[in-house]
Amino acid sequence: MREEEFRRLFQQFLYEYWGAFHEAVESESVTPERLAGSLFQAIRRAHEEFALRYTGKASASVETLGRLWEQLDLHRSYLADPPITAEDIGRARRQFLLVYHDLRDQGRAFPKVVNEILTGSPHETPAGPWHVDAAR
Predict the structure, then answer these.
(1) N or C, which end of the chain has less CB nearby within 10 Å?
(2) Domain enclosing residue 42, as ranges
(3) CB neighbour list of residue 123: distance below 8 Å, 6 or more residues apart
(4) 57-106 per-position pLDDT tens digit
């Protein structure tokens, strides 16, 4: 993978996909009884866009995340704005972590890019502690 391709993919993962999930969980920590449909749909869109570009070792994790979002979307068709359960958050975070580790492995060839993206990331990484955990 070329440097610019890696930059786009890693940034897309952290800023958009992980970011959408992190924002949804953060929102849910404030209103634990519901998750706005717009936040859930942002996760779905970010997943679809990332899944189109990612071909790394953790592809099975990306597929698992896709199935999780499909299951939760089906559940949302029966209930208005249900929250993502703590169990589902944990399942998703484990899959995000596998993808993150694969991208970090790929990024060993581009340490400056990795550092730049991590420094500019508006959200923690799947490997770090969450500020939203305290609200759970």
Answers:
(1) C
(2) 3-121
(3) 14, 15, 18, 19, 22, 23
(4) 999 999 999 999 999 999 998 888 999 999 999 999 999 999 999 999 99
Query: Does residue 129 sit within a domain?
Result: no
What's the Cα-to-Cα distance from 42 to each of 10, 39, 56, 99, 111, rounded to whole Å?
18, 5, 23, 19, 29
Phi first, then psi: what are they for 32, rounded to 5°? Answer: -65, -15
Indicate whether 20 belongs to any domain: yes
Residue 108: pLDDT over 70: yes
Residue 128 lies in a domain: no
Is residue 37 domain-resident? yes
pTM: 0.92
The total of structural domains in the chain comes to: 1
pLDDT value at residue 131: 62
Q: Where does the pLDDT of residue 124 fall: very low under 50, low under 70, confident under 90, or very high at 90 and above?
A: confident
8 Å CB contact between 125 and 100: yes
* Separation of alpha carbons 102 and 2, rounded Å: 16
